[in-house]
Amino acid sequence: MKHFLLLFLFGFALLLAGCVNVNQGTGNSSSANLSDPATDSNTCGASDNCNVSPISNINKVEVIHFHGTNQCYSCKTVGAYAEETVNAYFADELKSGKITFAHINGELPENQELVAKYGVTGASLWLGTYSNDGKFSAEQNVNVWYKIDNKAEYMSYLKGIIEQKLAGN
Amino acid sequence: MDLMAFMEAMGTSGIPIVAAFFIGLMTAISPCPLATNITAIAYASKRIDNSRHTLLVGFLYTLGRMFTYVAIASLIVWIGISTQTIALFLQQYGEKILGPLLIVVGVLLLGLVKLSSSQKNDRFGALKEKLAHRGFLGAFLLGVIFALAFCPFSAVLFFGMLIPLAIQSGDSFVIPAVFAFATGLPVILFSFLLVKSVNKVGTIMNKVQSFELWMRRVVSIIFILVGAYYTLSKTFEMW
Question: Chain-centre distance of CA B156, in angstroms?
Answer without folding.
Answer: 18
